[in-house]
Amino acid sequence: MTTTTDTPVTAPAARTTPAKRPGGRQREGAAWVFLSPWVLGAAVLTLLPMAVSLYLSFTDYDLFNPPRWVGLRNYTQMFTEDPRYWRSVGATLTYVVIAVPLQLGIALVVALGLKSMRRGRGFYRSAFYAPSLLGASMSIALVWRALFNDGGTVDNLLGTGGWVNRPGWALFAVALLTVWQFGAPMVIFLAGLQQIPTELYEAASVDGASRWRQFLSITVPMLSPVIFFNLVLQTIQAFQVFTPAFAVSGGKGGPADSTLFYTLYLYDRGFVASHMGYASAMAWVLLIVIGAVTAVLFRTSRTWVFYASEGDR
């Protein structure tokens, strides 16, 4: 006689969905409460003014009467009928090409010197950084104008006459003021240099590599992301330079429009001549140009910026 044992059939376990954490909605609401000042500030102080500026760029607006729609007239006048506009573009591009490489080069050299310094590094780092805090002020720009004016310190030392009164030299005086403010990129370079492993330099020294070869083969590639960061940041700031040119030229962009930078001419059109629609169009062109230049820098960075892993790109 055979006996069979019936094995109970168990039903498949039902899928369970993770239970929602209690109070999740409350935490999300609390997050939005804390973020609300930033969101409100971005909307009211950034997005709304940008939208109004875009609308005004298609109008004739003099700050006193209601804006009158003129379509693309401001843009066509800017590109085809305004020679001072193109002089401001030329002066700004010349300034960017001169000031940015000089500033970054001096910042890197000083950072290399501070890295190898054993004592007093903190003092010198603070001393070199101080001009970056003071250089953007109107008072320093006025002092700079006095230094490079006729009969000023530079004139007395070099006997070349006042730079700010000579069309071929005024722009260089403004560029030197920017170069003098190398403290901010210097601190960033110094932080990047301290992250480079010393073992790489020791191995290169054992292989007989000179200091110059170590700089080209180790320092520059390992520091390239920091160089790229400083290049983008300083280029954007250089396109927006205003205070030094305003102080050195007395707000006129002289002599002979040699310091008529883009933002200075924008200020002149908007707040001196009361052509706010035209100034708004200039502002949007500047925004597009800065965006395009930044995009080109990011695009070309793939060929010379070194990252630790390809996944970081």
UniProtKB/TrEMBL annotation:
A Pfam family the protein falls into: BPD_transp_1
The region called Disordered is annotated at: 1-24
- Which keywords, in A-to-Z order, does the entry hold? Cell membrane, Membrane, Transmembrane, Transmembrane helix, Transport
Q: Does tRNA-binding count among this protein's keywords? A: no
- Segments traversing the membrane: 30-58, 93-114, 126-148, 168-193, 214-233, 276-298
What is the first-listed, main subcellular location in coarse terms? membrane
GO cellular component term, pick one? plasma membrane
InterPro entries, per the entry: ABC_transporter_permease, MetI-like, MetI-like_sf
Q: Which residues form the signal peptide?
A: none
- Enumerate the SUPFAM superfamilies for this protein: MalF N-terminal region-like (SSF160964), MetI-like (SSF161098)
Pinpoint the ABC transmembrane type-1 domain residues: 89-297
Q: Name one GO biological process term.
A: transmembrane transport
Cell compartments where the protein resides:
Cell membrane
As for membrane topology, the entry says:
Multi-pass membrane protein
Please state which protein family the record places this protein in.
Belongs to the binding-protein-dependent transport system permease family.
Protein name, per record: ABC transporter permease
The organism is Streptomyces dioscori
